[in-house]
# Entry
Amino acid sequence: MEAAYILPKGNLLMKIKLFLLFLLLCAMTACGGGSGNDETITETDPDTGLPLNPETLPDGPFIVEGNIANLNLTPQDKPEFVIRVASGKTYRIRSQPLSNTTYDDGETIIPSAFTQGMRVRATVVQIEADGSSGRIRLMVSEDLTIIKEP
# Structure
């Protein structure tokens, strides 16, 4: 008889332990996992000393290096590229006219050669939006360059 009484008591103890574990996991999730490290580490470009693919947009210029995820080449004097970097973050950048865009070796690129997946690098700054954009701030680059894959 006593064995029948121990089984429900054990189940109750297990349920309490699981409930407390659930509460602990909820609290850790709400607090960011409890890692204690809230600083965002930003990689720095060795050539320029500027932030490289920052998660949080800085006030000054920064470098974006990644692959073209989407592109709008119209008008050709204000093309826009959506660049996806290794972390998965995307940047929508309005660049210099297509006629001024080159490969990293200086070779010119014709507009019909632009495709999704091309690797690019650009120095980017934020400016106040003009009337052609619904956004408050634009990310612009005057040196977007296509990186030739070996």
Remarks:
- Strands lie at 43-44, 51-52, 62-72, 80-84, 90-94, 102-103, 119-128, 137-140, 145-147.
